[in-house]
Protein backbone atom coordinates (compact mmCIF):
# COMPACT_ATOMS: atom_id res chain seq x y z
CA UNK A 1 0.00 0.00 0.00
CA UNK A 2 1.27 3.44 -0.88
CA UNK A 3 1.77 6.23 1.62
CA UNK A 4 -1.04 8.29 0.09
CA UNK A 5 -3.47 5.38 0.52
CA UNK A 6 -2.45 4.85 4.14
CA UNK A 7 -2.97 8.56 4.84
CA UNK A 8 -6.29 8.51 3.00
CA UNK A 9 -7.52 5.57 5.07
CA UNK A 10 -6.37 7.20 8.31
CA UNK A 11 -8.14 10.44 7.38
CA UNK A 12 -11.30 8.55 6.46
CA UNK A 13 -11.20 6.76 9.82
CA UNK A 14 -10.70 10.09 11.60
CA UNK A 15 -13.64 11.56 9.68
CA UNK A 16 -15.77 8.55 10.60
CA UNK A 17 -14.91 9.13 14.26
CA UNK A 18 -15.95 12.78 14.03
CA UNK A 19 -19.27 11.78 12.41
CA UNK A 20 -19.85 9.18 15.12
CA UNK A 21 -19.41 11.85 17.82
CA UNK A 22 -21.74 14.19 15.91
CA UNK A 23 -24.42 11.47 15.81
CA UNK A 24 -24.11 11.08 19.57
CA UNK A 25 -24.68 14.83 19.88
CA UNK A 26 -27.75 14.60 17.65
CA UNK A 27 -29.11 11.91 19.95
CA UNK A 28 -28.53 14.18 22.96
CA UNK A 29 -30.28 17.04 21.11
CA UNK A 30 -33.40 14.94 20.63
CA UNK A 31 -32.96 13.96 17.00
CA UNK A 32 -34.38 10.50 16.30
CA UNK A 33 -31.26 8.39 15.77
CA UNK A 34 -31.29 4.64 15.22
CA UNK A 35 -29.23 2.91 17.89
CA UNK A 36 -27.35 1.00 15.19
CA UNK A 37 -26.01 4.21 13.62
CA UNK A 38 -23.85 4.86 16.70
CA UNK A 39 -22.24 1.51 17.50
CA UNK A 40 -21.54 0.92 21.18
CA UNK A 41 -18.85 -1.70 20.54
CA UNK A 42 -15.46 -0.16 19.75
CA UNK A 43 -14.79 -2.76 17.06
CA UNK A 44 -18.02 -2.08 15.19
CA UNK A 45 -17.67 1.64 14.45
CA UNK A 46 -15.87 2.65 11.25
CA UNK A 47 -12.87 3.98 13.16
CA UNK A 48 -12.58 0.74 15.13
CA UNK A 49 -12.83 -1.33 11.97
CA UNK A 50 -9.95 0.66 10.48
CA UNK A 51 -7.92 0.59 13.69
CA UNK A 52 -8.22 -3.18 14.16
CA UNK A 53 -7.78 -3.81 10.44
CA UNK A 54 -5.49 -1.72 8.24
CA UNK A 55 -4.41 0.46 11.16
CA UNK A 56 -2.56 -2.37 12.88
CA UNK A 57 0.20 -2.30 10.29
CA UNK A 58 1.18 1.13 11.66
CA UNK A 59 2.42 -0.54 14.85
CA UNK A 60 5.54 -1.44 12.88
CA UNK A 61 6.51 2.05 11.78
CA UNK A 62 9.95 2.96 13.05
CA UNK A 63 8.90 6.49 14.02
CA UNK A 64 5.64 5.44 15.67
CA UNK A 65 6.19 4.35 19.26
CA UNK A 66 4.03 1.53 20.52
CA UNK A 67 2.58 3.90 23.12
CA UNK A 68 0.95 5.88 20.31
CA UNK A 69 -1.22 3.01 19.11
CA UNK A 70 -1.85 1.85 22.68
CA UNK A 71 -2.90 5.40 23.60
CA UNK A 72 -5.29 5.57 20.65
CA UNK A 73 -6.77 2.21 21.61
CA UNK A 74 -7.16 3.18 25.27
CA UNK A 75 -8.89 6.46 24.39
CA UNK A 76 -11.11 4.70 21.86
CA UNK A 77 -12.21 2.21 24.53
CA UNK A 78 -12.86 5.08 26.98
CA UNK A 79 -14.91 6.87 24.35
CA UNK A 80 -17.14 3.86 23.77
CA UNK A 81 -17.43 3.18 27.50
CA UNK A 82 -18.61 6.76 27.95
CA UNK A 83 -21.06 6.44 25.09
CA UNK A 84 -22.47 3.25 26.64
CA UNK A 85 -23.63 5.40 29.57
CA UNK A 86 -25.49 7.66 27.13
CA UNK A 87 -26.85 4.69 25.20
CA UNK A 88 -28.27 3.15 28.36
CA UNK A 89 -30.16 6.37 29.09
CA UNK A 90 -31.78 6.52 25.64
CA UNK A 91 -32.29 2.89 24.66
CA UNK A 92 -33.78 -0.15 26.31
CA UNK A 93 -34.27 -3.68 25.07
CA UNK A 94 -36.95 -4.35 27.69
CA UNK A 95 -39.88 -2.64 25.99
CA UNK A 96 -39.91 -4.57 22.73
CA UNK A 97 -42.05 -7.64 22.63
CA UNK A 98 -42.05 -10.63 20.36
CA UNK A 99 -39.32 -12.95 19.22
CA UNK A 100 -37.92 -10.81 16.36
CA UNK A 101 -38.09 -7.57 18.33
CA UNK A 102 -35.90 -9.10 21.01
CA UNK A 103 -33.39 -10.25 18.42
CA UNK A 104 -33.11 -7.05 16.43
CA UNK A 105 -32.51 -4.18 18.70
CA UNK A 106 -33.52 -1.72 21.29
CA UNK A 107 -36.38 0.68 21.78
CA UNK A 108 -35.76 4.37 22.30
CA UNK A 109 -37.03 5.38 25.73
CA UNK A 110 -38.85 8.50 26.79
CA UNK A 111 -36.44 10.12 29.22
CA UNK A 112 -36.87 12.57 32.05
CA UNK A 113 -35.26 16.00 32.26
CA UNK A 114 -32.83 14.64 34.86
CA UNK A 115 -31.81 11.82 32.52
CA UNK A 116 -31.41 14.32 29.71
CA UNK A 117 -29.11 16.46 31.86
CA UNK A 118 -27.12 13.39 32.87
CA UNK A 119 -26.74 12.41 29.21
CA UNK A 120 -25.49 15.93 28.45
CA UNK A 121 -22.90 15.60 31.23
CA UNK A 122 -21.79 12.25 29.85
CA UNK A 123 -21.59 13.77 26.38
CA UNK A 124 -19.31 16.58 27.59
CA UNK A 125 -16.98 13.94 29.00
CA UNK A 126 -17.22 12.03 25.71
CA UNK A 127 -16.23 15.22 23.85
CA UNK A 128 -13.14 15.61 26.04
CA UNK A 129 -12.09 12.04 25.36
CA UNK A 130 -12.73 12.60 21.65
CA UNK A 131 -10.47 15.68 21.63
CA UNK A 132 -7.66 13.66 23.21
CA UNK A 133 -8.23 10.86 20.70
CA UNK A 134 -8.13 13.30 17.78
CA UNK A 135 -4.88 14.77 19.14
CA UNK A 136 -3.34 11.28 19.12
CA UNK A 137 -4.67 10.54 15.64
CA UNK A 138 -3.21 13.84 14.42
CA UNK A 139 0.18 12.91 15.92
CA UNK A 140 0.02 9.60 14.09
CA UNK A 141 -0.84 11.41 10.87
CA UNK A 142 2.16 13.74 11.28
CA UNK A 143 4.40 10.70 11.82
CA UNK A 144 3.07 9.14 8.64
CA UNK A 145 3.70 12.32 6.69
CA UNK A 146 7.26 12.48 8.03
CA UNK A 147 8.25 8.93 7.16
CA UNK A 148 9.55 8.10 3.67
CA UNK A 149 7.08 6.37 1.36
CA UNK A 150 9.38 3.37 0.97
CA UNK A 151 9.19 2.57 4.69
CA UNK A 152 5.40 2.46 4.54
CA UNK A 153 5.39 0.31 1.39
CA UNK A 154 7.69 -2.18 3.14
CA UNK A 155 5.15 -2.65 5.94
CA UNK A 156 2.30 -3.88 3.82
Any descriptors?
mainly alpha, two-stranded antiparallel ribbon, single chain, 6 helices, 156 residues
Question: How does this model look, in words?
Answer:
The protein has six helices and two strands. With 156 residues, the chain is mostly helical. A two-stranded antiparallel ribbon has the order 1-2. Helix 1 packs antiparallel against helix 5 and helix 3 packs antiparallel against helix 5.
Condensed summary:
The chain is mainly alpha-helical. Helices cover 66% and strands 3% of the residues. It has a two-stranded antiparallel sheet.
How many beta-strand elements?
Answer: 2
- Strand-pairing-aware structural class: mainly alpha
Estimate the mean pLDDT confidence.
Answer: 87
Number of helices: 6
| C-alpha termini separation | 6 Å
What portion of residues is helical? 55-70%
Order of helices and strands: HHHEHEHH
Q: Main sheet: which strands, in order across? A: 1-2
Stretches with pLDDT under 50, minimum 5 residues: 98-103
Major beta-sheet overview: 2 strands, antiparallel
Task: Please compute the radius of gyration using only Cα atoms.
Answer: 18 Å
Q: How much strand?
A: under 5%
Q: What is the overall shape?
A: elongated
